[in-house]
Design a protein that fits this description.
This protein is α/β, with parallel strands linked by helices. It has two domains: 113 residues, Rossmann fold (3-Layer(aba) Sandwich), CATH 3.40.50.720; 155 residues, Dihydrodipicolinate Reductase, domain 2 (2-Layer Sandwich), CATH 3.30.360. It contains nine helices and 15 strands. A nine-stranded mixed sheet has the order 14-13-12-11-7-10-9-8-15. The chain is globular. The model has no long low-confidence stretch (mean pLDDT 96). It comes from Alsobacter ponti. It holds the Pfam family GFO_IDH_MocA.
């Protein structure tokens, strides 16, 4: 079978660091076009557009990976589906839940595939944790997700605007792991969001989570101000007494103090492997659970102002 001809809309850091090289190494895909407002190009790709509409009009493009900020993804993805293209959405897949529901409907009506990618779910430690937690009940869960925004989002102003997600841009990765591995539904009971005085989106967040039973201790702490080593950890204890720890974003899993998975992350390789499967099957995969938890956090949050932050 010939490779799927794919285009990328949005050539920011994640597209350059992950999508472009992973597609180049995947025999199921051929990167044939890119679109970037800044007129950026990808190695070996001759068709480079400044307007994404021109990319969608290209008859040689079968599918598009949309790697723009979330605020414009619904518009671009809708147009892509109307143009007969299959759609892969970087995380978060849309700015709102309503937009995501609409994209799923549009894909079904168009007979095209839409795929919401939650890259952290594709670490092997995450899948192993899911299997080990199946049928269990959670007694405790603590997410600690702290990183340096200047390192991962240099000069990006959109993340501080309304709809830019702020610290939930990385925090949603942790929540995507939680919703993947938890053996029962998880809810947001309360939240505190710290927002710089010159921003609309939070720089830090603390969530009280719940599975709906007395005595549970479930929570998450996100912070974008950590310099030096970065922290992407999830610690879990079941009612049966088992203790699991996911480290380094899910690439390392410890069970009762013993390392059972420790390997380099191959998240985007997993994403494109799954996308190829969906394209062959002609089926969509839309997972709204991580986005729903973020939306719930904003709905119930107590907001506090913190000092000005200049990226």
């Amino acid at each position: 079978m010939s490779a799927y001809r794919i285009g990328i809309v949005g050539l920011g850091k994640i597209a350059q660091d992950q999508h472009v090289p992973v597609i180049a190494a995947d025999p199921d895909f051929d990167l044939v076009a890119v679109a970037s407002q800044r007129a950026m190009r990808a190695p070996g790709v001759s068709r480079a557009f400044t307007d994404w509409r021109d990319l969608l009009a290209d008859p040689d493009v079968d599918a598009v990976a949309i790697c723009t900020p979330p605020g414009v993804r619904h518009q671009i993805a809708s147009a892509a589906l109307d143009a007969g293209k299959h759609v892969l959405l970087e995380k978060p897949p849309a700015a709102t839940l309503s937009e995501l529901v609409d994209l799923e409907r549009r894909a079904a009506e168009a007979g095209r595939v839409v795929f919401t990618t939650w890259h952290s779910q594709y670490n092997r430690g995450v899948e192993e944790a899911r299997l080990r937690l199946a049928g269990q009940r959670l007694r405790a869960l603590q997410v600690t997700w702290k990183e340096d925004v200047r390192r991962w989002h240099p000069g990006q102003a959109w993340i501080w605007e309304a709809g830019g997600f702020g610290v939930f841009d990385p925090g949603i990765n942790a929540l995507s792991i939680v919703t993947r591995i938890a053996p029962e539904p998880i809810f947001v009971r309360s939240a505190t969001l710290e927002t710089p005085e010159n921003a609309q989106a939070p720089i830090a967040a603390t969530l009280e989570l719940a599975a709906g039973r007395a005595g549970e201790r479930l929570g998450a702490v996100f912070d974008w101000r950590q310099t030096g080593p970065q922290t992407w950890d999830i610690d879990i204890e079941t009612e049966a007494g088992a203790k699991l720890a996911l480290r380094h974003g899910g690439s390392r899993l410890e069970v009762d103090g013993t390392v059972v998975v420790d390997e380099p992350a191959h998240e985007y390789e997993g994403i494109y492997r799954r996308f190829a499967e969906l394209l062959r099957d002609g089926s969509s995969q839309v997972d709204a659970a991580p986005l729903r938890l973020v939306a719930d956090a904003f709905m119930v949050a107590r907001r506090t102002a913190t000092e000005r932050f200049d990226p």
